[in-house]
Design goal:
The structure is a single chain. With about 525 residues, the chain is mostly helical. It folds into three domains: about 120 residues, no CATH class; about 325 residues, no CATH class; about 60 residues, no CATH class. The chain is about 75% helix and about 0% strand. The protein has a two-stranded antiparallel sheet with strand order 1-2.
Length: about 525
């Protein structure tokens, strides 16, 4: 007999020799191997009386098509699903359905569902269904189509939400970069102000040196007449210059320390602000994903309960329909038996035979009911496992997207921090180099002052001043040098290097005189 091919909404006979895909020899070689393993399940002897029942014939070509749907894993709506004769044997529709259910693995449940839909609806072929039943089936298919469309719209909305979140994060990153550029501009302005202050201090030093030079010229011209007044004024000017120089050094050190502390505070505040922003964003993302996971779990649980409820209702309706048919047949038999008893007592034996046949039918129906119940229990566990696998995959996908976004944010934060540290180090190197140059210039100025003092001493020696006055001045200068040496020794004794004073003590050179010396070679009152 010809096979039946279901394609779309049409059911029509088809020739097994023209089955789609039969021209590919390599594919059918693989299909033949699968068919040989499948036929091992089909070595079932069918009793003779079952041959008169409603059966499904499967041809060899149809066997190839059914097996190819298991091997290919790419079943589409236009793939013919053909049932026919397996190895030339006949079998009932429910027996063929049970055999194919055992052959299918757990990963082939979707193909099994497709095979059952192609087979028919509730065990009835589409060719034997009424117009009303077909309309109901079409309505169910339309409801499934609407549900699939709703799911597609839902996932489209989720994609739009993720894109919106990406744009917001991108704009926030631009804001952080603009803030970083603002901080860099502020640092550049502070550096420029520092340069201006250094220039002002240099001008002051030049002005003081110029005044000192003028004062020295005046003292040279009036050295013969006002030696004592010139010496006093020179001492005052030198003291003023030393104090001013010490003040400038102290102020410069304070400015350097203040700038370094200010940079550290800005760095700490910026790091704290960035850390707080990222922690806030991370907490918000965690809350949002937890809520979405909870909603998805609730929806899946509700969907599973609805599907289980629908399956139970279909099975209960089928059982009730079978019981009603049985009650109707039993009542018809009872009425017929009463009529026969009234009309003819000779038909009692034939009625007993009919009663025995009805009992056999009842037992057969009970066995079928138990088989359906066992099949229902067997389908509950795979459904539960499939739901659990679906939840696990969705949870993994959510965690993967979240970890990926977090890793990208951490990488961008590290890059920003490295660039900020590099900029700070570059500014510190430039400032240190400039401070070193300033220190060298101050050392050169100090050498010039010492040379001027030597020249002043030579002038005093050449002017033939009072030896007693020269001796007193030399004694004071030596006492000053001894006092500086004593202070430096005390500082080293207490573990304080002289460089930490913030200024360099000025040592004077005096002509050597024969003076009295105290302990440790220090200057004391002459004997």
């Amino acid at each position: 007999m010809p096979c039946l091919k279901k394609l779309g909404k049409q059911v029509f006979p088809v020739d097994p020799a023209n089955v789609s895909g039969a021209k590919n020899a390599a594919t059918w070689t693989k299909v033949d191997k699968e068919r040989s393993s499948l036929n091992e399940y089909l070595t079932i002897s069918i009793p003779g009386p079952l041959a008169s029942k409603k059966v499904i014939q499967l041809s060899d070509a149809a066997t190839k098509t059914a097996t190819a749907s298991l091997v290919d894993r790419r079943l589409r709506a236009n793939r013919p699903i053909i049932w026919g004769l397996f190895s030339g044997k006949f079998m009932p529709a429910k027996l063929a359905k049970s055999i194919l259910s055992n052959v299918l693995t757990k990963t082939d449940k979707s193909l099994q569902a497709e095979w059952l839909r192609q087979k028919g609806i509730d065990g009835i072929s589409t060719a034997e269904m009424s117009h009303t039943q077909l309309e109901e089936h079409i309505i169910r298919l339309r409801e499934e189509l609407d549900r699939e469309r709703e799911e597609r719209n839902f996932f489209h909305l989720e994609k739009d939400k993720i894109n919106t979140f990406w744009e917001i994060t991108k704009s926030q990153l631009e804001d952080v970069r603009s803030e970083l550029r603002t901080k860099e501009r502020e640092m550049e302005e502070a550096e420029e102000r520092h340069h201006l202050e250094l220039k002002v201090y240099k001008q002051k030093v030049k002005h003081l040196l110029y005044e000192h030079q003028n004062r020295e010229t005046e003292l040279k011209s009036e050295s013969a007449t006002v030696a004592k007044i010139l010496q006093a004024e020179n001492a005052e000017v030198e003291e003023f210059l030393r104090k001013d120089q010490r003040n400038l050094k102290c102020q410069m050190s304070e400015n350097i320390c203040h700038n370094a502390e200010h940079v550290k505070e800005l760095k700490k505040d910026y790091e704290k602000q960035i850390r707080q922003d990222f922690e806030t964003k991370l907490n918000e993302q965690q809350k949002c994903h937890q809520e979405r996971i909870k909603i998805m779990v609730d929806d899946l649980n509700l969907q599973r309960k609805n599907e289980l409820h629908d399956i139970e209702e279909r099975k209960n309706n089928h059982i009730n329909r079978i019981m009603q048919d049985h009650d109707k047949a039993f009542s018809d038999m009872k009425n017929y038996y009463n009529d026969i008893t009234v009309n003819n007592m000779a038909l009692i034996s034939s009625l007993k035979e009919q009663l025995a046949e009805q009992k056999k039918n009842q037992e057969r129906l009970e066995r079928q009911i138990s088989e359906l119940q066992a099949e229902n229990r067997r389908l509950v566990e795979p459904l539960k496992k499939a739901c659990e696998e679906n939840e696990d995959l969705k949870r993994r996908m959510t965690n993967y997207e979240k970890d990926k976004a977090l890793f990208k944010m951490e990488k961008e934060r590290d890059e920003l921090y490295e660039r900020f540290v590099a900029a700070i180090q570059e500014v510190q190197q430039k400032t240190g180099l400039k401070n070193l140059l300033l220190e060298k210039r101050l050392q050169a100025l100090t050498d010039v002052v010492e040379k001027k003092e030597v020249q002043l001493n030579e002038v005093l020696a050449a002017s033939n001043l009072d030896p007693a006055a020269v001796t007193a001045v030399s004694h004071k200068l030596n006492a000053h040098n001894d006092l500086l040496a004593t202070c430096e020794g005390k500082l080293r004794q207490f573990g304080i290097p002289p460089e930490e004073l913030g200024f360099q003590p000025l040592k004077t050179s005096a002509p050597k005189q024969t003076l009295g010396q105290g302990p440790a070679g220090l200057v004391s009152v002459p004997p």
